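idk why but the lab printer keeps eating my pages so im just putting this in chat instead. protein + pyridoxal-5'-phosphate:
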Amino acid sequence: MTKKVIYLDNNATTKVCDEAINAMLPFLGERYGNPSSMHTFGGEIGAYVKKSREQTAALMGAADPQEVVFTSCGTESSNMAFRGLTDPRKRHIITTKVEHPCVLNVARHLEKNHDYEVTYLGVDTEGQLDLDEFKDSIRPDTALISVMWANNETGVILPVEQLAEIAKEKNPDILFFTDAVQAAGKIPINIKGTKIDMVSISGHKIHAPKGVGAIYVRKGSLLSPFMLGGHQERGQRGGTENVAGIVALGMASEQALSYLEDEATRVKQMRDRLERGILEKCFNARVNGSRIKRVPNTTNISFEYIEGELILLHLSDLGICASSGSACTSGNLEPSHVLRAMGIPFTAVHGSIRFSLSRYTAEDEIDYVIEKMPEVIEKLNSISPFQTELRELKEIKTAMKS
Ligand code: PLP
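predcted complex ->
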């Protein structure tokens, strides 16, 4: 009998929703035409790509679907925003220390190989930027500002609408990009009323398949294409369209929009119940980052003085899927750059676990994790080399409770 899987790793990837599967299937079968073809068999496929563009634009709150460009993933969308910069005189970029590697690594690449100067802004223990420091970092030669909408490890939401306002007031020519891969489908996004120029999303984080993503590019933004090829996506991204993936992304976007209320209520309540249950029963547990400015599905909990990887292995034996740090960097035992930037003590960074829920998470799964977690943590506490520190921490927590 296969063990039941309790999947609490939805920031790594999500289950593809039935609606997206059903929508995409014809395009893997009988509707295999190329939307660029002159004949009707291919040409009529374009109507489905158009519909998907409208659905995806609606999720982003974009004024015009033509501002949406389909890509292969969130990483490609970020690369497009950075590598598409055109003005040779503007060689300064501002980003943060807590971005996903798809932003940090392309920023480092431009710094190392293309004479850009990059300012990496720090964050406080809540995961928030200092607004004065942000404002002061903007220069006349700043070409691009890239600040993520929601952090993948902690779920912390950054005030990107406000940051874009500040940036444009100081320097109207700046391009403002936000990686909204972890915000889309979790909190409302409404680009049209903002000064944000570019927004990335990824299909596999919102119950569409892997291999499809999108970037919103505000009309009039000076961005040169990064993928050169055919005229697809109005010349902004060459390559024959991944029609099945695009259609699935459109449907998943429509579904995500209709489930926003559910995320904000039911999913959030389950996340909060999980968090409370763990904090009550595990004395060495602490939540990392703001508990208020956070997407509703994510909690990042550190278990002080024990190893996150060991916790994950024990949870995995129980059929519980969670993650330590970012899934994209696991396999690499470097402690999380996000938690380190937040100044979380080393002994807590190493024992951090991210639980990320979705609309498919069930109440009884949360019950099960709340029941099993204290047993796992007690077992690992008993073999930790930090017995004195654990004893002292337990005494402090007990004294605080009484
Ligand atoms: N940005 C954030 C915040 C992410 O969490 C991820 C993936 O984990 C990405 C970008 C990369 O997206 P993709 O896997 O579609 O390339």
